[in-house]
UniProtKB/TrEMBL annotation:
Its EC number is 2.7.7.6. GO terms for biological process: DNA-templated transcription. The keyword Metal-binding does not apply. SUPFAM superfamilies: RPB6/omega subunit-like. HAMAP family: RNApol_arch_Rpo6. This is DNA-directed RNA polymerase subunit Rpo6. It is found in: Cytoplasm. Part of the RNA polymerase complex. InterPro entries: DNA-dir_RNA_polK_14-18kDa_CS (IPR020708), Pol_omega/Rpo6/RPB6 (IPR006110), RPB6/omega-like_sf (IPR036161), Rpo6/Rpb6 (IPR006111). It catalyses: RNA(n) + a ribonucleoside 5'-triphosphate = RNA(n+1) + diphosphate. GO terms for cellular component: cytoplasm; DNA-directed RNA polymerase complex. It comes from Methanocaldococcus infernus (strain DSM 11812 / JCM 15783 / ME). Belongs to the archaeal Rpo6/eukaryotic RPB6 RNA polymerase subunit family.
């Protein structure tokens, strides 16, 4: 399933907030920024979130 740019932004933003609130990262990275960690998780396909589309 191809994601729109809006879905990508929403998923990365939601995951970044989770990481900032103390959730564990699914990748090993030395970054301190939760946004950069979430983006790298997304690039690697390791982000544990999927969009639900309304019909």
């Amino acid at each position: 399933m191809k994601l729109t740019k809006f879905e990508v932004a929403r998923i990365i933003g939601a995951r970044s907030l989770q990481i900032a609130d103390g959730a564990y990262s699914t990748i090993d990275i030395e970054e301190l920024s939760s946004l950069k960690i979430a983006f790298e998780e997304f690039k690697r396909g390791k982000i544990p979130l999927k969009p639900i589309r309304e019909r």
